[in-house]
Amino acid sequence: MAKDLGMAVLMDFYGGLLTDKRYEVLDMYYNQDMSLAEIASELEISRQGARDAIKHGERQLSELEEKLGLAARFKNIQKRISKINALLDNGGGRDEIKSILKEIEKFV
């Protein structure tokens, strides 16, 4: 099972909406980099139970992002802020910075 590290980002945004147990399993898998066997042993569940909990948690996080889009909005704002910083570092145009700031206001 290949790890989608974007899930760790989604956990930052939506982890508080998961059950404690589901969050714990996802945290062990993504943040602590534990294997399914290690998670199963730690929680005294089967390896398949650990895998199922991860899959259900991933699905829940993906559905929340699909509905709310907070992580995508955050990433978009970050990209624009980086562009502003680059412009400022290079003595960029004031008008272009104002334009980017107006774009950011749409996301806030």
Describe this structure as you would to a colleague.
With 108 residues, the chain is mainly α. Helix content is 79%, strand content 0%. It has 6 helices and no strands.
Quick gist of this model?
The chain has helices at 6-14, 20-31, 36-43, 47-68, 70-89, 94-107. With 108 residues, it is mainly α.
| C-alpha-based Rg, rounded | 19 Å
The helix content is over 70%
Q: Give the biggest beta sheet.
A: none
Give the ordered list of helices and strands: HHHHHH
Structural class by helix and strand composition: mainly alpha
Q: How far from one another are the termini?
A: 36 Å
Strand content: under 5%
Number of helices: 6
Which stretches are poorly predicted, pLDDT < 50 over at least 5 residues?
Answer: none
Shape: elongated
What is the strand tally?
0
The overall average pLDDT, rounded, is 89
What order do the helices and strands come in, and which of them pair?
Elements: H1 6-14, H2 20-31, H3 36-43, H4 47-68, H5 70-89, H6 94-107
Helix pairs in contact: 1-4, 2-4, 3-4, 5-6
Task: Provide the descriptors you would attach to this structure in a database record.
single chain; 108 residues; mainly alpha; 6 helices; 79% helix; 0% strand
